[in-house]
């Protein structure tokens, strides 16, 4: 749950102004992403359907709302 | 009022029987509902839904569409014989409805009164579907379900939001001020899709699952010629006081932050409209074409041209709405209400990230998280966008099985920001929200399930042993029947006859 303080959005028009709170975090997140991207793909490789083409072909839905 | 209002989400799940792509989806969907219902002692075959008050062909603009001109798929209030499994339809003790909607199993969440609860009871629906799949897996090949909205071959199925509004707000004002918001909202709430066009023929990635399927600005249909603003006027409540705004343009979300923002920012924009607080025109020149252009540009550079000639990115347009909301809740004093503050804080953070570097919102926004994974694959294995492996990842992203669903795996690995706990979601599978009439519905099913003959959003029909006539309990006020209203009365009732007597005495619902 967020704190009680009021947050007033301010539009950040130009690129002269970075985000005040997490500009540092953004690049940190990117670096982390690059770093463990191999681990990420390994995780997914482990569960991916073996025959992608067949799997995609057989995923056929009737339209809904 | 801030962000609080009665709301809910209906989700149609994609369904597949491995190795049998053309198996009858209505029969399969019936099996899903029946598997869950039987395991929990709920009588699916009794088709326990009271349709007396449903009117899906009523149009918010003020006229009824004749039955003769309606497409059969619009006739959601007609149902077959009690023993037809494709009409399986049950109410759960958490106040939700689980049933077969056309060719998909659908979980309609109970009415909640905060976006946060909307998130919790929507995720509870994922667990319901997950359990059904687990039970069906006992008879191979089982049936798999996917919380997504497109099959990549031309079909789409919906995730609809519902918001209770004041009847007095002119519908034209809703159309005028909500359309631009919906054109832009997808950059915060889209779930991402591999392929461009309804049939994904053009290789590429786009922001929203649903955007390509919208053809008109305003209309009654939901299965064909889909409109940005849906006019279905079926309030499930006192009609001269309330409207239920039926929103069909959203994607199914997995990411908590995107899900919270979908419900929260929309509720706040509706509050602006109800208060008459939008005094400028943000009308978009070509809403349908722009909706699609925005979806097709993950760099978020695409421009929205307004009727007055201004050109804004989707993020800039959303900033404008966020500023108007912030000014409004500051004036009303609702800005410090915790649920409103939570939504405003995430709204600001996500827009900041999206405009700084869209990919920095990978932990908060579904399409960004999905694109990050797909891009990593492309980089590692040199895949082109038409590669079936990327399409497979897109579909499997939404598999409800925790060991197969890619989103589930990544969330378990801590790669998405979670706003609600697993315990809260688990509890919501069986317990109703406490601040709406869903509490009464859910408690009744839990405590007197055998006596409930039929239910709907706005009524319950109960059978009292020894009495020939059935009792119909209307629930036309969505904010009555809460725990505060009926909790003590239900606690004190020894049996259904006792409860009916007590209800007669003080008519609390």
Automatic annotation (TrEMBL), chain A:
UniProt xrefs under InterPro entries: Ubiquitin-like_Pup
Location of cross-link Isoglutamyl lysine isopeptide (Gln-Lys) (interchain with K-? in acceptor proteins): 65
Pfam families in the record: Pup (PF05639)
Domain of life: Bacteria
Functional pathway: Protein degradation; proteasomal Pup-dependent pathway
Keywords: Isopeptide bond, Ubl conjugation pathway
Disordered: annotated segments: 1-37
Deamidated glutamine PTM sites in chain numbering: 65
Modified how: Is modified by deamidation of its C-terminal glutamine to glutamate by the deamidase Dop, a prerequisite to the subsequent pupylation process.
HAMAP family assigned to the protein according to its UniProt record, in alphabetical order: Pup
Family of the protein in this entry: Belongs to the prokaryotic ubiquitin-like protein family.
Entry note about domains: The N-terminal unstructured half of Pup provides a signal required to initiate unfolding and degradation by the proteasome but is not needed for pupylation, while the C-terminal helical half of Pup interacts with ARC to target proteins to the proteasome.
Protein purpose: Protein modifier that is covalently attached to lysine residues of substrate proteins, thereby targeting them for proteasomal degradation. The tagging system is termed pupylation.
Subunit (UniProt): Strongly interacts with the proteasome-associated ATPase ARC through a hydrophobic interface; the interacting region of Pup lies in its C-terminal half. There is one Pup binding site per ARC hexamer ring.
Protein name: Prokaryotic ubiquitin-like protein Pup
Species of the source: Nostocoides veronense
Lineage of source species: Bacteria, Bacillati, Actinomycetota, Actinomycetes, Micrococcales
TrEMBL record, chain B:
InterPro entries: Pup_deamidase, Pup_ligase/deamidase
Coiled coil: none
One Pfam match: Pup_ligase
NCBIfam families per UniProt: depupylase_Dop
UniProt cross-references to PANTHER family, sorted A to Z: PUP DEAMIDASE/DEPUPYLASE (PTHR42307), PUP DEAMIDASE_DEPUPYLASE (PTHR42307:SF2)
UniProt similarity note: Belongs to the Pup ligase/Pup deamidase family. Pup deamidase subfamily.
Protein's UniProt name: Depupylase/deamidase Dop
Organism: Nostocoides veronense
């Amino acid at each position: 749950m967020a704190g009680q303080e009021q947050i007033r959005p301010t539009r950040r028009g130009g690129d002269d102004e970075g985000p005040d709170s997490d500009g540092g975090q953004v690049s940190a997140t990117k670096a982390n992403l690059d770093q463990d991207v191999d681990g990420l793909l390994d995780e997914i490789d482990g569960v991916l359907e073996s025959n992608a083409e067949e799997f995609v072909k057989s995923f056929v839905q009737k339209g809904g709302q | 009022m801030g962000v609080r209002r009665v709301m809910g989400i209906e989700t149609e799940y994609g369904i597949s029987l491995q190795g049998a792509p053309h198996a009858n989806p209505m029969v399969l969907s019936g099996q899903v509902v029946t598997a869950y219902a039987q395991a929990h002692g709920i009588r699916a075959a009794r088709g326990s839904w009271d349709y007396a008050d449903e009117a899906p062909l009523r149009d918010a603009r003020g006229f009824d569409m004749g039955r003769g001109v309606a497409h059969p798929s619009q006739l959601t209030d007609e149902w077959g014989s009690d023993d037809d499994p494709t009409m399986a339809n049950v109410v759960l003790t958490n106040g939700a409805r689980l049933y077969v909607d056309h060719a998909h199993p659908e979980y309609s969440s109970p009415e909640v009164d905060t976006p946060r609860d909307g998130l919790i009871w929507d995720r509870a629906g994922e667990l319901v579907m997950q359990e059904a799949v687990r039970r069906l897996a006992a008879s191979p090949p089982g049936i798999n379900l996917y919380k997504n909205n497109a099959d990549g071959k031309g079909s789409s199925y919906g995730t609809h939001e519902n918001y209770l509004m004041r009847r007095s707000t002119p519908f034209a004002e809703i159309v005028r001020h909500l359309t631009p918001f919906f054109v832009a909202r997808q950059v915060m709430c889209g779930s991402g899709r591999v392929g461009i066009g309804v049939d994904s023929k053009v290789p590429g990635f786009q922001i929203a699952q649903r955007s390509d399927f919208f053809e008109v600005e305003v209309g009654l249909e939901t299965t064909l010629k889909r409109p940005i603003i849906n006019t279905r006027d079926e309030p499930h409540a006192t009609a001269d006081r309330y409207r239920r705004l039926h929103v069909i343009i959203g994607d199914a979300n997995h990411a908590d932050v995107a899900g919270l923002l979908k419900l929260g920012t929309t509720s706040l924009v509706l509050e602006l409209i109800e208060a008459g607080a939008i005094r400028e025109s943000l009308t978009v020149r070509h809403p349908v074409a722009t909706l699609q252009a925005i979806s097709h540009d993950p760099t978020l550079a695409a421009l929205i041209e307004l009727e007055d000639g201004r050109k804004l990115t989707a993020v800039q347009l959303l900033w404008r709405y966020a500023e108007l909301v912030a000014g409004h809740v500051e004036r009303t004093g609702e800005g410090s209400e915790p649920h409103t503050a939570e939504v405003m804080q995430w709204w600001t953070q996500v827009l900041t990230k999206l405009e700084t570097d869209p990919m920095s919102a990978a932990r908060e926004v579904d399409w960004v998280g999905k694109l990050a994974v797909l891009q990593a694959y492309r980089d590692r294995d040199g895949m082109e966008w038409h590669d079936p492996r990327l399409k497979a990842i897109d579909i499997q992203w939404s598999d409800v099985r925790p060991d197969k669903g890619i989103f589930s795996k990544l969330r378990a690995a801590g790669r998405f920001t979670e706003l609600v706990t697993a315990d809260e979601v688990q509890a919501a599978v069986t317990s109703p929200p406490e601040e709406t009439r869903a509490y009464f519905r859910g408690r009744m099913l839990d405590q007197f399930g055998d006596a409930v003959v039929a239910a709907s959003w706005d009524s319950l029909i109960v059978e009292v042993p020894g009495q020939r006539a059935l009792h119909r309990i209307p629930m036309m006020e969505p904010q009555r029947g809460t725990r505060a209203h009926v909790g003590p009365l239900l606690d004190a009732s020894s049996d259904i006859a006792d409860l009916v007597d007590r209800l007669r005495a003080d008519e609390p619902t």
